[in-house]
């Protein structure tokens, strides 16, 4: 749950910065959000969730 909220917040900040600074149009951002909703309800959702969890675990295991 914590990883999901953190990832969602990070992606929201990235999209906001892309809209403001990189010239991403709001319509393109909306299409990306809709794609995310469709992927979440598709058969690929568990695979995407496992991938994002494994990336989070990999980042968590790094030590500096």
Architecture overview:
- By secondary structure, the protein is mostly helical.
- It has one domain.
- Helices cover about 80% and strands about 0% of the residues.
- It contains 3 helices and no strands.
- The model has no long low-confidence stretch (mean pLDDT about 85).
Nutshell version of this structure?
By secondary structure, the chain is an all-alpha fold. 81% of the residues lie in helices and 0% in strands.
Task: Enumerate how many helices there are, as a single number.
Answer: 3
- pLDDT < 50 runs, ≥5 residues: none
Regarding quaternary structure, what we see is single chain
Largest sheet: none
The total strand number stands at: 0
Label the structural class: mainly alpha
Radius of gyration: 14 Å
* Amino-to-carboxy terminus distance: 25 Å
Q: What is the average per-residue confidence, as pLDDT, rounded to a whole number?
A: 85
Order of helices and strands: HHH
Kindly estimate the percentage of residues that lie in beta strands according to DSSP: under 5%
Shape: flat
In total, the number of domains comes to 1
Helical residue percent? over 70%
Protein name: DUF2304 family protein
Organism: Streptomyces sedi
